[in-house]
């Protein structure tokens, strides 16, 4: 038997629910094995069982053919199982090396032999093409680099089987490309990889085989070479899923949002938006494409009143909204689906029901004479929960307890329900599974068809291509080019996003 | 093994038990009888109506200072300045109490209101500095404590009296003291302020949980970014939270100024009402009802402890260690929560 | 939500109650409540305590080891106990106050434990004594260092200005720099008496002498005492008289620190209330020049005895002074307090006792006195 990992008939219960029910996972040596499932399907639970964080109620685990009893992560480490967490577990103020050796420091007469560790880290980094500076401080390096430090951490501890938990969720397209190369070189060196994901594109690109889980149950394992994204998606969701979002041609009407010569500085005082001009018409979706860090976040914060504009004007219809307070902007008919839903979109410690009125809590019927009317609030919340298919035990559950997709659906319900004239959707589907993505895309198009202006910001080119009626490419604080999706392709967009203006003519 | 609800109930109980246990161990280690010691504590706090009265009297300012800390914490602010706000509230209430001759129905509310306003003002300053300039409230409030202490000493000596170190007693019409309550409790200093404190606990619960403003305050406390995104003015809510917190603290000062002492004297140091308020708020989980119960525990310990040296012969120093240990365990409930959760995980 | 919070708090209350309750009843051997317990205690107190007279005192925040006022009073009570064969807790005892909020509680508790005579040590306890005395007319009270109303209260005061005058004489004689200092506890009538006497005494010896007067605003802040002393000594002052309770410990500490490092320089402290010779000792030398001894112990013992004999001076103000030997200048540091100084002190004492000199006891009188020199 050449399986390095075998998880057989695993069952894991939590009070009230069965998270894993009779799941089988068999990983061959030297393969990249995808673990596919919707958010909340039980992927993370299964991996936590493998990593020793949970003990299964039933079933057995074999590592390299021998039955293993993995009681805690240390046992998993000893068996050569390493986990690259989605949320990095790194100490910001420590160097790369210090973070890597943390917990298993090489000692020399009672002190940590950091020299030796640095040398080892450097060797490992070179061997797998990770290109990490062992002496850099974590806070000074990019998110992509931090992820490589997490990978190095597992390799340093001698991992043979690496579990990647949604590794691309936090990365830019370029970083994703590099990560895929790293995974391929790891496999070449004889490591085995389990990739937890719900991104079909990635599976098709790098994986050898794929195990699908749906609602806690194992659906089966398929060879990636013998399947296609549509089949995988329907296995995962349990029904047919349409990928290319269907939409009618846009019928743009009058210009609704117009931005002229806008200049915005970031928190450090660096100018990030440098004289930007952009128009969005009612009844169209304008997608902003660009590599992260070219001023997109600052642009959206300036429109929504969260950040001060230095100069220029932002106009809604006739009304100038430059530097109004967020509330004034909202009341002018703008809805904002924020990029970071945990930081901006929700008060995680509030019940989901109260989050549903986060923008309107002060208005009747939710509040009268300064006193809240929770009955009306929860009535409204329940309506939105039903309408937008937010899966939650009830409206009183804390927002924190919901999965990312359901949190996002709640935000979208809240923002769309206000019947705004302009919807700003920043990365509306980040980290969500196909089912939720499909739902959200459909909603945005519906709103467009109702004659609303939609400004979409996304780092997923596919999303931009699918949804936009017009694509505005942002580079270095300006819109450098505007194209129609049917007149371009990802390669062309990629070049534009890199600031390559020469290609503009050639592409069209 | 345990549900979250059980954990929440278990933590304060375990804290108190551990505190009492470790206090007992200390007493045994030094050759004193812990049973006698705790019996003395119990008798000193509840032994008869007098002690019960004194305990409730001590509980009164603790409820208010605990509410003050808790209210600020719910909005994400650490108000270390409750101590100073108690001082200004105290002096303001006494000032009004000794300066006017008015019918009680006007005089008493006026004196109480003066205390609340003075405390509110003392909270406003760190609040506005935080909102406008981003100065951390902890630093400002610590400084404001000293300013309050020395200003009130100077006022007592130079303005309210002629060089004396204690003001006159407040007029009868401004006093919270009650002959009826005192009579019932063998001349304890129990006063009507307890009702004000309990009413304020209700006010805090109502404001935070039922009003639109409270919704904003809590939202700001949990997530300033999201509150800003939702159109709430974070700065305004920060100032407001400090003002309300200060008003509660000022009322705690009025309890001392109009109830317990009925005068203000030159103080050589802090009263600790405000600092103990921090522990009261933490133990009470920052909820109004929790604060009332935690204040009750602290008042009991404070008054009961005085009886330990005379009745059980435990030296004062040791009593202080024992009380400090109990408070330590109670305040470090975070640690106990952590341990329980660890067991919980292993149990699974 | 509400329910869980309620449950949480309820169980908290229950826990406290249960545990404390368990402690209470286990001592009673199952009998309910703490009352029985207390009665037993009372019986013990009155039963075994010699005769049926018991006496207790309440300290201010300084405590009975403040090396000053409270300690002196406690020594008086102990002497009283020894005289009548009593022991601590049975016949005499003290209660220590942690803050000014505790005064009334402590006094009340002692009343409720059936002590016959209760001393409030220090003027800070005057309002509390007065208040409780009015509530319990059958119990005897005494306040030291202040005057309290009530027929069942004996007020014990001292003519500290007289003793301070002599301390001023000694300081003026001893100083080489003609700069001396005064550290007061809390600025008020009582300590102003010390200040006035001290300044008057010093100016009587040398009208041009420089007296630096500072207040620490506390009787229990040794750190402030140390700071003030450090300032004074660095300004060239070589004798400091402190009338500041435990704050004075800081003055001693600073003088000793300086003396250790510069053995040839002079850093003198004049103690207060009791002979503070011990506090000034370092190795083979001593920084305590003398002390203005206020025999609180004599006064306390005296009042206790009078009460025991049924001659309690209720409603009276007792003044203890130089003529009663309840005020004196300590002569323990024979090396420092030389013949010449002693002669001068004796000389002035004579004049005071005879009435030739009227020692000022407040700042106004002091001004008149100094102007008349």
CATH topology of the largest domain in chain C: Rossmann fold
Low-pLDDT residue spans of chain B: none
Biggest interface reads: B-C, 65 and 55 residues
> How is the quaternary structure best described?
heterotrimer
Organism (chain B): Halobacillus yeomjeoni
GO molecular function, one term (chain B): transmembrane transporter activity
Membrane topology (chain B): Multi-pass membrane protein
Transmembrane segments (chain B): 7-29, 59-80, 86-103, 110-129, 135-156, 190-208, 238-261, 273-298, 318-340
Structure write-up:
The complex is a heterotrimer of chains A (508), B (348) and C (373). Chain A is α/β, with parallel strands linked by helices and 508 residues long. Chain A folds into 3 domains: 3-237, P-loop containing nucleotide triphosphate hydrolases (Rossmann fold); 243-333 and 420-508, Rossmann fold; 344-419, no CATH class. A 6-stranded mixed sheet of chain A has the order 6-9-10-3-11-12, with helices on both faces. In chain A, β19 and β20 (371-372) form a beta hairpin. The termini of chain A are far apart. Chain B has 348 residues and is an all-alpha fold. Chain B has a single domain (49-300), classed as ABC transporter involved in vitamin B12 uptake, BtuC, CATH 1.10.3470. Helices cover 78% and strands 0% of the residues of chain B. Chain B contains 15 helices and no strands. The longest helix of chain B has 30 residues, at 104-133. Chain B starts with a helix and ends with a helix. The relative contact order of chain B is 0.21. The model of chain B has no long low-confidence stretch (mean pLDDT 88). A 7-stranded parallel sheet of chain C has the order 2-3-1-4-5-6-14, sandwiched between helices. Chain C is globular. Chain C is built from 12 helices and 15 strands. Chain C folds into 2 domains: 50-158 and 295-326, Response regulator (Rossmann fold), CATH 3.40.50; 160-293 and 338-372, Rossmann fold (3-Layer(aba) Sandwich), CATH 3.40.50.2300. The termini of chain C are far apart. By secondary structure, chain C is an alpha/beta fold. In chain C, α3 packs parallel to α10 and α6 packs parallel to α7 (189-205). Residues 20-50 of chain C have low confidence and may be disordered. Chain C is 47% helix and 18% strand. At the B-C interface, α1, α2, α3 and α13 of B face α1, α2, α4 and α5 of C.
């Amino acid at each position: 038997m050449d399986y390095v990992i075998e998880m057989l008939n695993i069952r894991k219960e939590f009070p009230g629910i069965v998270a894993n029910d009779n799941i089988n996972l068999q990983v061959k040596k030297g393969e990249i094995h995808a673990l596919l499932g919707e958010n909340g399907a039980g992927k993370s639970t299964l991996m936590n069982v493998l990593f020793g964080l949970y003990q299964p109620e039933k079933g057995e685990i074999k590592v390299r053919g021998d039955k293993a009893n993995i009681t805690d992560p240390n046992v998993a480490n000893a068996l050569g199982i390493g986990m690259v967490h989605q949320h990095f577990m790194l100490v910001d103020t420590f160097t790369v090396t210090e973070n890597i050796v943390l917990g298993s420091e090489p000692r020399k007469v009672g002190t940590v032999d950091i020299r030796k560790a640095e040398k080892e880290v450097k060797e490992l980094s070179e061997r797998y093409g990770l290109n990490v500076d062992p002496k850099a401080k974590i806070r000074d390096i990019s998110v992509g680099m931090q992820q490589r430090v997490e990978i190095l951490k597992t390799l340093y501890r001698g991992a043979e089987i690496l579990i990647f938990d949604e590794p691309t969720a936090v990365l830019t397209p370029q970083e994703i490309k590099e990560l895929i190369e790293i995974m391929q070189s790891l496999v070449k060196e004889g490591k085995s990889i389990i990739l937890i994901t719900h991104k079909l594109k990635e599976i098709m690109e790098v994986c050898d085989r794929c195990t699908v889980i749906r609602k806690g149950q194992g659906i089966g394992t398929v060879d990636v070479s013998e399947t296609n994204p549509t089949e995988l998606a329907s296995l995962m969701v349990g029904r047919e899923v349409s990928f290319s979002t269907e939409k009618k041609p846009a019928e743009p009407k009058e210009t609704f949002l117009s931005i002229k010569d806008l200049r915005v500085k970031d928190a450090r005082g660096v100018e990030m938006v440098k004289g930007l001009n952009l128009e969005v018409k009612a009844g169209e979706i304008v997608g902003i494409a660009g590599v992260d860090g070219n001023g997109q976040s600052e642009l959206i914060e300036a429109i929504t009143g969260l950040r001060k504009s230095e100069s220029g004007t932002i106009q809604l219809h006739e009304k100038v909204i430059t530097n109004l307070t967020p509330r004034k902007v909202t009341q002018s008919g703008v809805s904002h689906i924020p990029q970071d839903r945990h930081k901006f979109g929700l008060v995680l410690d509030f019940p989901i029901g109260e989050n549903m009125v986060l923008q309107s809590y002060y208005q009747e019927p939710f509040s009268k004479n300064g006193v809240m009317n929770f009955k009306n609030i929860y009535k409204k919340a329940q309506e939105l929960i039903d309408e937008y298919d937010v899966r939650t035990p009830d409206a009183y559950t804390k927002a924190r307890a919901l999965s990312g997709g359901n949190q996002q659906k709640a935000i979208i319900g809240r923002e769309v329900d206000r019947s705004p004239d302009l919807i700003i959707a920043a990365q509306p589907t980040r980290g969500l599974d196909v089912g939720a993505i499909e739902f959200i895309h459909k909603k945005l198009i519906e709103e467009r068809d109702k004659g609303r202006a939609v400004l979409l910001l996304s780092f997923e080119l596919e999303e931009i291509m699918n949804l936009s009626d017009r694509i505005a490419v942002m580079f270095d604080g300006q819109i450098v080019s505007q194209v129609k999706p049917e007149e371009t392709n990802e390669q062309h967009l990629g070049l534009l996003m890199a600031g390559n203006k020469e290609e503009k003519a050639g592409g069209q | 093994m345990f549900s979250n609800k059980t954990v929440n109930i278990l933590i304060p109980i375990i804290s108190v038990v551990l505190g009492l246990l470790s206090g007992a161990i200390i007493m045994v280690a030094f050759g004193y009888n812990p049973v006698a010691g705790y019996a003395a504590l119990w008798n000193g706090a509840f032994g008869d109506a007098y002690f019960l009265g004194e305990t409730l009297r001590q509980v009164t300012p603790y409820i208010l200072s605990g509410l003050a800390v808790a209210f600020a914490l719910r909005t994400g602010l650490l108000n270390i300045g409750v101590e100073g706000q108690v001082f200004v509230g105290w002096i303001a209430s006494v000032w009004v109490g000794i300066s006017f001759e008015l019918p009680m129905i006007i005089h008493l509310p006026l004196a109480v209101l003066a205390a609340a306003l003075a405390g509110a003002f003392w909270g406003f300053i760190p609040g506005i500095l935080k909102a406008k300039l981003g100065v951390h409230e902890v630093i400002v409030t610590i400084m404001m404590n000293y300013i309050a202490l020395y200003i009130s000493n100077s006022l007592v000596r130079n303005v309210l009296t002629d060089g004396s170190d204690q003001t006159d007693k407040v007029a009868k019409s401004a006093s919270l003291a009650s002959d009826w309550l005192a009579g019932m409790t063998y001349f304890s200093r129990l006063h009507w302020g307890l009702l004000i404190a309990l009413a304020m606990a209700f006010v805090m619960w109502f404001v935070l949980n039922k009003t639109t403003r409270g919704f904003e305050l809590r939202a700001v406390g949990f997530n300033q970014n999201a509150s800003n995104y939702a159109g709430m003015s974070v700065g305004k809510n920060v100032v407001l939270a400090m003002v309300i917190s200060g008003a509660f603290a000022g009322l705690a000062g009025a309890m001392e100024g109009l109830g317990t002492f009925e005068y203000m004297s030159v103080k050589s140091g802090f009263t600790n009402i405000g600092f103990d308020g921090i522990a009261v708020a933490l133990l009470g989980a920052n909820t109004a009802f929790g604060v009332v119960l935690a204040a009750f525990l602290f008042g009991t310990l404070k008054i009961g402890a005085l009886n330990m040296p005379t009745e059980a012969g435990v030296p004062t120093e040791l009593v202080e260690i024992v009380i400090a240990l109990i408070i330590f365990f109670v305040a470090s409930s975070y640690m106990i929560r952590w341990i329980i959760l660890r067991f919980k995980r292993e149990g699974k | 939500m509400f329910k869980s919070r309620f449950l949480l708090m309820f169980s908290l209350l229950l826990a406290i109650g249960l545990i404390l309750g368990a402690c209470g009843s286990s001592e009673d051997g199952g009998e309910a409540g703490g009352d029985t317990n207390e009665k037993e205690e009372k019986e013990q107190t009155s039963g075994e305590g010699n005769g049926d007279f018991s006496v207790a005192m309440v300290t201010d925040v300084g405590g009975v080891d403040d090396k000053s006022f409270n300690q002196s009073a406690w020594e008086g009570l102990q002497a009283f106990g020894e005289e009548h064969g009593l022991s601590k807790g049975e016949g005499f005892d003290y209660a220590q106050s942690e803050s000014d909020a505790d005064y009334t509680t402590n006094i009340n508790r002692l009343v409720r434990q059936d002590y016959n005579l209760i001393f409030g040590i220090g003027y800070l306890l005057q309002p509390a004594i007065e208040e409780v005395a009015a509530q319990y007319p059958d119990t005897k009270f005494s306040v030291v260092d202040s005057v309290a109303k009530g027929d069942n209260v004996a007020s014990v005061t001292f003519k500290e200005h007289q003793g301070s005058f002599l301390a001023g004489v000694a300081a003026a004689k001893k100083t080489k720099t003609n700069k001396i200092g005064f550290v007061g506890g809390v600025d008020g009538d009582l300590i102003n008496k010390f200040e006035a006497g001290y300044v008057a005494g010093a100016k009587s010896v040398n009208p041009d002498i420089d007296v630096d007067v500072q207040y620490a605003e506390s009787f229990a802040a040794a750190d402030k005492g140390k700071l003030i002393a450090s300032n004074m000594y660095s300004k060239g002052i070589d004798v400091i008289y402190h009338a500041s309770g435990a704050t004075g410990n800081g003055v001693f500490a600073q003088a000793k620190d300086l003396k250790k490092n510069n053995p040839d320089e002079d850093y003198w402290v004049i103690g207060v209330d009791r002979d503070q010779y011990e506090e000034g000792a370092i190795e083979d030398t001593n920084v305590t020049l003398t002390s203005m001894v206020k025999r609180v112990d004599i006064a306390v013992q005296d009042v206790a005895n009078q009460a025991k004999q049924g001659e309690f001076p209720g409603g009276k103000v007792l003044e203890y002074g130089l003529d009663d030997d309840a005020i004196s200048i300590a002569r323990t540091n024979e090396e420092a307090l030389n013949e010449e100084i002693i002669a001068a002190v004796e000389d002035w004492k004579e004049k005071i006792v005879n009435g030739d000199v009227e020692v000022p006891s407040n700042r106004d009188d002091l001004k008149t006195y100094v102007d008349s020199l």
